[in-house]
Write a structure and sequence with these properties.
CATH superfamily: Divalent-metal-dependent TIM barrel enzymes
Strand order of the largest sheet: 1-2-3-4-5-6-7-10
Helix content: 25-40%
Strand content: 5-15%
Structural class: alpha/beta
Largest sheet: 8 strands, parallel, barrel
Radius of gyration: 19 Å
Number of helices: 12
Number of strands: 10
Oligomer: single chain
Length: 305
């Protein structure tokens, strides 16, 4: 088991090796097809809430062709639409939704729940229907997106969630879907001692049933090198979130290529990670989110794919 101390030690050793190794400082494109240009729709959430059809048309016009959804939990709809209707809207715009985010479901986290307090469309509640709807839309990855503060209650509870993820992953597998977990920074919080919550999730889930969507921004903000994480757990990261860390305080999310993350170095480890799809996501934008996602895709197309 990797302790926090060994996790950090390995990170520092690997970083030193990168600096010393000849030729590794130059970027080598991965020998795989990365034609899917992905966007997490949370970035344009306000526009999607007002006009999903028009927003998707605009996203496609900017150049994205691959999507990750940010709604379903609670409403059990894809942006207010059933799978068949939403699939038609995607097809009309030349878009494919490859992945979608969902909640664990133990706590609503401020979102509306049903009158009996159950948060449907989650891993814990109505997961069978949730998987069936994802399958109907052609989704290939179902991702636990976030844990509320009430769901982050110690390492034993993370072990329980890991067991629940294994069950959810088995149901996904039966539908031809891969289950994943998406991180923020709290999974790397050292307050529990030598073992990090993220390690608990990695080490207590079946590698075939549960894989991970590494958010490069949050992992970096928490002080961890994505490359080292990939090396410690090869093949478990088929999905990435691409967003940069702004160079000035408060070091918030920024358009890809404008901040301090070395994406070229990270993309050198795409094969080690097991990367299949990446999605641009910017939680907060200083101006129009459409300007931000245009800036991100321009950098990505010129430098990474």
């Amino acid at each position: 088991m990797h302790t926090r101390r060994s996790f950090l030690k390995t990170s520092s050793i690997y970083s030193a090796g990168i600096l010393a190794a000849p030729g590794l400082s130059s970027f080598v494109k991965p020998d795989r097809d990365l034609k899917a240009l992905g966007l997490q729709l949370y970035t344009v959430r306000e526009a999607m809430a007002k006009d999903p059809t028009g927003t998707l048309a605009k996203v496609a016009q900017i150049g994205y062709n691959s999507l990750e959804g940010a709604t379903y939990t609670g409403t059990e709809k894809f942006y207010g639409m059933d799978p068949q209707t939403f699939a038609g809207v995607l097809k009309n715009n030349g878009l494919i939704m490859r992945s979608c985010h969902y909640r664990y479901g133990e706590d609503t986290g401020g979102a509306p729940a049903l009158t009996n307090g159950i948060f449907n469309g989650t891993i814990l509640h109505d997961w069978d229907k949730t998987v069936a709807d994802a399958h109907a839309l052609g989704i290939k990855y179902m991702v636990c997106a976030w844990l509320s503060e009430k769901e982050r209650v110690g390492l034993d509870h993370y072990k329980k969630m890991a067991a629940d993820f294994n069950v959810a992953g088995e149901k996904c597998k039966s539908a031809g879907i891969q289950f994943c977990y998406h991180n923020h920074d709290f999974e790397f919080d050292p307050k529990y001692g030598a073992t990090l919550p993220y390690q608990v999730l990695l080490e207590n889930t079946d590698p075939k049933l549960v894989k991970f969507e590494l958010d490069l921004f949050w992992a970096t903000k928490a002080g961890h090198d994505p490359v080292t994480i990939f090396q410690n757990h090869p093949g478990r990261f088929p999905l990435w979130h691409l967003k940069d860390v702004a160079k000035t305080a408060p070091y918030d999310t920024a358009a890809v290529g404008t901040g301090s993350i070395d994406f070229k170095k990270i993309f050198m480890s795409a094969k080690t990670a097991g990367l299949q799809y990446w999605f641009v996501e910017q939680d907060r934008t200083p101006g129009s989110p459409f300007d931000a996602i245009t800036e991100s895709i321009s950098y990505i197309k010129a430098n990474l794919v």
